[in-house]
Write a structure and sequence with these properties.
This protein folds into three domains: 83 residues; 82 residues; 144 residues, Heat Shock Protein 90 (2-Layer Sandwich), CATH 3.30.565.10. The chain is 60% helix and 12% strand. It is built from nine helices and seven strands.
Amino acid sequence: MAFQSLRSRVIVGSLLWMTGLFTIASAIAITISHRRPELIGAVHNTFVVVFSIVCIVAGIVQLRRSLWPLRTLRARLTAVREGRERRVDGAYASEIQPLVTDLNALLDQREHVVARALAKAGDLAHGLKTPLAVLSREAELVEAAGHPDLAAAIRNQVALMNRQMDYHLAHARAAAAGPVLGARCAVAESAEALARTMQRLHAGRGLTIDVAVPAGLAVRCQREDLDEMLGNLVDNACKWAKSRVVIFAEASGSQVTIAVDDDGPGLEPSMRENVLQRGVRADEAAPGSGLGLAIVRDLSSLYGGSIALGSSPVGGLRAVLTLAAG
């Protein structure tokens, strides 16, 4: 393509624009300097007028074309930021291409660092889960030996360590990765998969889990982190629900709101902020470590989102997760 250089495009556009102006100015100057009215017709001569207009328009067009690579670059950077693209593709003017090359190198390096951090987190999880599984097996042997109280204590501590590990790994993963440029996932896929899993886990209770999430709705978030956040909310709703849980999502401007409702006993307004704190549970007699909602709060915050609790239209608690639209 001609004029790959941004500088060349600007120069050619300026020359065309100046040529058009100079042609008209010269014709007017000649007419005035010779004081010959009959030459006035020359000023309005079709050739002179058309030539001048063509030069001016061509110059303006050429100058505007010199800005197209910058507009294209901006559009593609927006696509990367919103998760529609992974790299800044395309050919650019010679002055811009080095910048694009460096941007792509930075994106590649960032992706490599994130992948390495996720791999390390996975290695740590694997290394810790093995000895915890051994302890769970030892609890079974202790119970078989006639010490049920000791076995129950061991199981409770193993469960607590597993939950603590999940919490810190999820937090470390999101802190290392997020918000990742290009991170984007479909809400419906995550919600439907979690609904199927929870339906199996609570099959004996006859729970109904309804999913009302538009197919094309997406958020700027890693799929693993959305599963972690939404999974905690759905698990909490299933734990307290009498018979029904509803997962609902909708887009509102640049944000997506995901609501999880249950028809359980609900939660007093004075307790709603407290249970979002690490280690706090609404019912100390219920199983758990009190980290579920704290995980959701911390992960959503890392992605620029939020979590709030309120009253559900189906009678129990409503948990509202807000994230940036993808």
